[in-house]
Amino acid sequence: MPDPAGTGRLMPETTSSADFAQRAVDIARASVAAGGLPFGTVIVKDGAILAEGSNCVGTTHDPTDHAEIRAIRAACRTLGTEYLTGCTVYAIAHPCPMCLAALYHCAPDEVVFLATREDCAPYLTGGKDKYFEPGTFYAEFAKPWDERRLPMRYLPRADAVAVYELFREQHAR
C-alpha cells in the first residue's frame, strides 16, 4: 500500500497496533543512534500513519521539541485543525506533563504508551534539568503555584484580564 503519511515508506496492507507501537520504538531507537533522546511518537488515523516524531530538544535547543509535540504539530497541519479526533497516538513512554497537556488539548481518541514513568525514570535522572526529576516532576504540577520548586510570582493586572474580555466580545456567538 502507498505511504499515506508521505514518509517514503510503504505500509503493509494490514497494519496493527503492534506495528504502530513498533514504529514508535524504531523512531526512538533511531534517535538514540543519532545521539538524541529515546522518544518516538506515531499518530494514526484510519489505520494509517498520519504523522510521527522524535525528540529533537538536543539538536534544536528547543525545550518543547518533544516527539509527541512534533507529531501533534505535523498531524494537525495535515488535518487542518487543532483536534485529532479519530486518531490514536502511540508514544514510547508515558507523556511528560507538557505533552500530556497538549494531548488533552488536541483530544485524540486514544493515547497508547509503551513504558511507564517508573520504567524510564532510572535512565533519565541526573541530567542538567534543574526542575526535571521524573519521580517528582508530575507531583510539582499538583502543588499550588506558590509551593512549586520553580519560583513563581503573581502580579495582578486588570489590563491582563481585559484582554480576555476583549477576546470574549470578539468571539461571542
UniProtKB/TrEMBL annotation:
Membrane-spanning intervals of the chain: none
Single GO MF annotation: tRNA-specific adenosine-34 deaminase activity
Any coiled-coil regions, as ranges: none
UniProt domain CMP/dCMP-type deaminase: residue ranges: 15-131
Keywords: Hydrolase, Metal-binding, Zinc
Entries under Pfam families matching the protein: dCMP_cyt_deam_1
Originating organism: Nocardia africana
Enzyme class: hydrolase
EC number of the protein: 3.5.4.33
SUPFAM superfamilies given in the database record: Cytidine deaminase-like
Annotated protein name in UniProt: Nucleoside deaminase
Annotated InterPro entries: APOBEC/CMP_deaminase_Zn-bd, CMP_dCMP_dom, Cytidine_deaminase-like
